[in-house]
Amino acid sequence: MPLHLPEGKTLAVNIGADFDAHSVWMGTFNLSSPSYLSRGEFCAEVGVPRLISLFDRYDIRATWCTPGHSMVTFPERVRQIVDAGHEIAAHGCYHEGVPKLDADTERRLMAAQLAQHERYVGVRPRGYRSPAWDFTDQTLSVLEENGFEWDSSLMGRDFEPYHPRPVEVGWEEGSSFGPASPLLEFPVSWFLDDFPAAEYIPGVNQGLGSSEVMFQRWKDHFDFAYRNVPGGVLTLTVHPQTIARAHYLMGFERLIEYMAGHEGTWFAALSDIYDTWRED
Fold first, then answer.
1. Distance between CA atoms of 24 and 118, rounded to whole angstroms?
2. Given a cut of 80, is residue 170 above it in pLDDT?
3. What would the pLDDT profile of 95-136 be if each residue is shown by its tens digit?
4. With the C-alpha atoms ordered 150, 151, 154, 155, is the resulting torsion angle positive or negative?
5. DSSP states of 125-160
């Protein structure tokens, strides 16, 4: 296992808080009515402080994947996250639909979001999470060109980081892989994301799922990784506008307490986990 976790730690757990605010509604869903924007406002004004308080109680350093639009719109919340000692990673300019971008636009939006990071965070991000977890054929190259060390958008493994490879799709002759990227991929999964299970979007996503079912699924993932993948990483994705609702937040705290009760659990930011990586 190329991750060499700190002494006494057997499983890394990252909580990635996607601070999407207005942008997820505007960018991914093309919705900008006052009703949807108010859900984004809840994300910033209620969800972010609640999560910061929760993480502080359990001494958790999280990775906040934050679109540039959220930084410009809610700069005081970005400062609150930074002051609490958390990492901020790139997450698009305005939660744009990446697969629809041509190469020039993708590079322009990447430059824009990096400039926003430098202005509102003070440093360039080390890692990237694609809005809605999707790529174009050139996304890997764009990330490499801009000096990113890691990505957390793809699903080629579950509990083990890996180097993603570009794929040339073939039909009758099968697909072929290009050379592995130097970027390290921290894999994600829709099963480990609160948004599809919980957020109700009429005609788009049913949401309103059982919090008990969702947290049981996350607990099962943790138990499997803890028992079977020593030195691995569990990457959870939450959204302040979702997980900070009262019933979900109570269940989330119970899950965190459960994971923290297992000897060797290490809650860490993705860049901290990346720093333990050693190539075979």
1. 22
2. yes
3. 999 999 999 999 999 999 999 999 999 999 999 999 999 999
4. positive
5. -SEE--GGG---TTHHHHHHHTT--EE----S-SSS
